[in-house]
Design a protein that fits this description.
The structure is a homodimer. Chain A is mainly α. Helix content of chain A is 66%, strand content 6%. Chain A has a three-stranded mixed β-sheet. In chain A, strands 4-5-6 form a three-stranded mixed β-sheet. The radius of gyration of chain A is 30 Å and the shape is elongated. The termini of chain A are far apart. Chains A and B meet through helix 1, helix 13, strand 3, helix 14 and helix 16 of A and helix 1, helix 13, strand 3, helix 14 and helix 16 of B.
């Protein structure tokens, strides 16, 4: 969280702001980007800087990213160094990891020191996580001992857990304070705290015993004591809780912040909602990519364009290779049926449709279940209900698709009724089985504590292909006697 | 937003809360659920109620949902009516739309009136949107005229726009007030306002001219004037802005609330972050489902299990039927090659693999691009960069898969080198073309202002299947001379 992100505290006030606000911000941003790129092209960095500072930190960071992409990181570094000091710290916090590293390599040690000393603690940790170890060591050398210990603790939390999302900057209140004393304390501490919207009350053993929102403090009379208004029935997260679970709790309860405690229930930090917005988007992206058979081995925040060709290929190959093994079996099923196929070669023309429909209809079911599991709408305990539902959906869809295909095979393709029965009978059963397989595999994968989004699709593809072909050839034997 | 959702103002304080908080809340919740279900089974509603009220409103609503699912909505209505009045209002706001309608049908008009009068304005609108028109009319009759007009305005905003997410309850400040006057005003108004964390300053024409965060007010000296600390460079949304765009701005800037203005830049309401958490999740779910060929025609918040079999079938059929048309072409390609195929029938065994790999590798590319477009990581302007990247990825992956298959065809299946060359040559070009098609179609769909998630997959499936078969048969002609 950058200071002032809650709207209302961007440190600059600008004469032209109102004019801008009246129009479409995105349009203004686009126009300025073009102007800035031109100025950078002509090496008029000071005038480009003047254009930049018309925007807030988030937007300046986005503009600098574009400059890096369109021209060179060196131009970005020059522009960055020309920014007012206070702005540069905020902008730095908003830049992607790669650009942060490049900028640190391009500025002096003193500038790095200044930026890191001014940054919020959780942003600082994010930067240090991205930097090479030797630079981190150099930075830590110059850090006061107490903070160095804290930084090391934070750097050691496993990736994607609550500990890596939290900040140790929060407002602590004493339970015997009056509201007046509490508000005075916030006034003194406030500027440095990550968020002052929720305040925390600890006992003598640093255990969290209650929370008070700033809004409660503001609307309560001055002489009431904190302990009489604090909420003792709060939700907290363990420091090792997975970030996906933390995000689910934010969505579930709609909180602005959630306290993070260690195994002894001692308060170690807080997570604020703005960091969770990114997590929710990241987790959705990860699930979507996994469902399409793309595994992000890199596990970085790199965008599509920033990821190298090699990394892209590496992320996509495993699933394709696993399916190669599955296709050996599909091939064997077809080979064993080769003689019959050459007898009625027209059956081959329907293979893509039957296998494709099986795959598509199966993945419709699996996607709904995988997403339902992720948003906690369904659970492995609902297996029987889901099975019964998908059975009926499968019969319904299978019947309709079969009827449509009966017309096609007989009237469009001009085959006899027996070929039509083979194709349509196969279609009906393939759809039903694909729906059942597609809905059950994610539940089984979830039951054995693996990620359904990761495993389900290759498994469903291979099983449903083999099942589709087997059903098709069985129908051919039944109706055509081959 | 229910009152107190910011943690710290759930209206009850409970002796046993601390014990509960020490343990895993989910576990406690599960145990209580079992106990409540047993008590309901034995018709011991009062004791079930006593168990319920140990939880907060969000959790009580979840428990009641489970009761509805496991037993009967009538039991839920009985339990609901036994809840303390203030709790029942909060719980009601958290229930899903279907349950809200059932409860309103099961309680007296006076109870309905009480609940609706106590609810926050935006929650009330959500409920009224779900209710049948005749019940809405009955409720509106008893509403004061000024509020009735406001309700009608809100009910008339198109679905999924900023207007349906916002609340008119916000804190207005005068620019000439001192901080002390502002805080006193918040103290008087505060309890009823949706959120007090950001306050808004309007000019005499109701135009929004500045915003001040509560934290700024708290940490600023009492005699400073609002106009001297208000931020005039704020981000706002137009009332007709799509909810997806609004969510993107929340993620981009990390705001707690965004003001909503009409075309004349007059403040009409505010949107708070907690309503956006749901939107982000909904939009991700919609995209994921659309990518799998499931279109939610219902556009309701109904979960998988709540959706009827008919609705499920309806949501899934269109895409399957469109593909049926595509498969007619695939069939025609195969039929035109039937004679050659019956000559070298073993070629059929590789068809599923080649078409399947084409589809999978194409959908890997399309998924990354569709998601990239949704999160604004890539843009239609990046088309050339993407094309060049996917070309190289395609060559890399295609070469590796071809090499693996060369070994399979020659040594596992025992075919000659010409069959192997046919299959592997086809594989290489199919992968390359599938990557290019998969990455370009979403960009084209986006360019013509349609939703890439909705259109891209059927288009890619049909094109890539036809391309795969054509390449395969071309290779067969080239290497096998058939």
């Amino acid at each position: 969280m950058i200071p002032g992100k809650g709207q209302g505290a961007f440190p600059r006030e600008r004469g032209d702001a109102m004019d801008t606000a009246m129009f479409d911000r995105d349009l203004v941003w686009e126009e300025s980007l073009e102007k800035i790129l031109e100025l950078v092209e002509e090496k008029k960095f000071f005038r480009a800087r003047d254009e930049l500072v018309k925007f807030n930190a988030v937007e300046i960071a986005e503009l600098l990213e574009e400059v890096t992409e369109e021209t060179d990181i060196r131009d970005t570094v020059i522009l960055f160094r020309l920014l007012p000091k206070d702005v540069s710290v905020e902008v730095f916090a908003e830049l992607p990891g790669d650009d942060q590293v490049d900028i640190i390599n391009g500025i002096t040690d003193r500038e790095t020191e200044f930026i890191l000393s001014e940054m919020d603690f959780d942003d600082k940790i994010d930067v240090l996580e991205e930097l090479p170890a030797n630079i981190v060591d150099k930075i830590l050398e110059k850090t006061p001992k107490s903070e160095r210990r804290l930084i090391n603790t934070f750097l050691n939390y496993p990736e994607n857990c609550a500990g890596t999302l939290m900040t140790p900057d929060y407002i602590s209140l004493q339970k015997d304070w009056t509201v007046r004393e509490a508000l005075d304390h916030i006034k003194r501490e406030g500027m440095d705290a990550e968020t002052v919207y929720t305040c925390y009350v600890k006992d003598t053993g640093r255990k969290l015993i209650g929370i008070v929102s700033l809004s409660t403090l503001v609307i309560t009379d001055d002489d009431i004591r904190v302990k009489d208004i604090m909420n003792t029935d709060f939700v907290s997260e363990n420091v090792y809780e997975d970030q996906e679970e933390v995000a689910a709790d934010f969505t579930r309860y709609g909180f602005i912040a959630i306290p993070v405690v260690d195994n002894e229930f001692r308060l170690v930090g807080i997570i604020t909602f703005d960091d969770i917005l990114d997590v929710i988007e990241e987790e959705a992206t990860e699930d979507i990519e996994r469902m399409a058979g793309v595994i992000d081995f890199d596990d970085s925040d790199r965008t599509y364009l920033e990821t190298s060709v090699w990394q892209h290929a590496l992320n996509r190959l495993p699933w394709l290779l696993i399916l190669m093994v599955a296709y050996v079996f599909t091939g064997m099923i077809i080979t064993s049926f080769e003689d019959a196929l050459s007898e009625v070669i027209s059956l081959v023309a329907y293979m893509p449709m039957l296998m494709g429909t099986g795959g598509n209809t199966g993945s419709q079911a699996s996607t709904l279940i995988i997403r339902g599991l992720a948003t906690e709408e369904v659970d492995t305990g609902d297996a029987l209900k889901i099975l019964w539902k998908e059975l009926r959906i499968g019969v319904l869809i299978g019947t309709i698709l079969s009827a449509v295909n009966f017309l096609r095979v007989c009237f469009l393709d001009g085959h006899g009724p027996m070929v039509a029965l083979t194709v349509c009978g196969a279609m009906l059963f393939i759809v039903i089985f694909a729906k059942l397989i597609g809905s059950m595999i994610p539940l089984i994968v979830k039951k054995v504590k693996l990620d359904p989004a990761l495993i389900a699709n290759p498994a469903i593809s291979s099983v449903s292909d083999a099942v589709a072909l087997s059903i098709y050839f069985l129908m051919a034997r039944l109706f055509l006697g081959i």
